[in-house]
Amino acid sequence: MRISREGKYTVFILSCIVGIDLLFSRIWVIAFFLIPIVMILSRDPIRITAKKKAIFSPVDGFISDISEDIIDSERFIKITIRTNFYNVLRNYSPTTGVVKKIESNINDDTYLSITIDDIILKYLQPKHKQTLSHSYIENIYVKVGQPMGMYRFTGVVEVLIPDTIPVVVLKGQTMVGAETVLAGQVLYQEKEINNA
């Protein structure tokens, strides 16, 4: 099992605690059982993103809501994805483009808002629970499917997509980060047109 960089540090620290506790006490049993849990939460599988013009899910989880939203007189389709502790907690870039804007601690619910070209990602969580570590930097070029951060436990991500791009997912659908297409051109539609 491949472990994320953040998880390797935690596993190393817990292993050191187990080693020290083995010498001095019986508390090592608790730390010994924490290591597999941290390894499961920190797993980082290899994801293969298809080479097509589309917007992919930035996280594993399920779609809890699809609604319309208006920001600065522009219409967006808002897709809300919830992650659970048993999902892979890695975050991926949903599209290829330039990171235009990063805002953090916007209000009580939104910890981080990232704009990549016309796509807006909003990571929702209370300010006191900053459970997302990320590597987004303004004005850098990111590729679709590129690992960009890690949740420590669970979270909610809102993906705002311009309403001119067709959304191809449904409420309740399970998402696989960097592999499930949220919106964009779907290749099987082209095949149906060509066969007609």
Give a written overview of the molecule.
The chain has helices spanning 5-24, 28-41, 187-195, and strands spanning 54-56, 61-71, 74-83, 90-92, 97-104, 110-116, 119-124, 132-134, 141-142, 147-151, 155-162, 174-175, 181-184. The protein is α+β, with helices and mostly antiparallel strands and 196 residues long. The chain folds into 2 domains: 5-41, no CATH class; 54-184, Glucose Permease (Domain IIA), CATH 2.70.70. The protein has an 8-stranded antiparallel β-sheet with strand order 9-5-6-7-11-3-2-12, with no helix packed on it. A hairpin with a 5-residue loop joins strand 5 (97-104) and strand 6. It is elongated. 29% of the residues are buried. Residues 187-196 have low confidence and may be disordered.
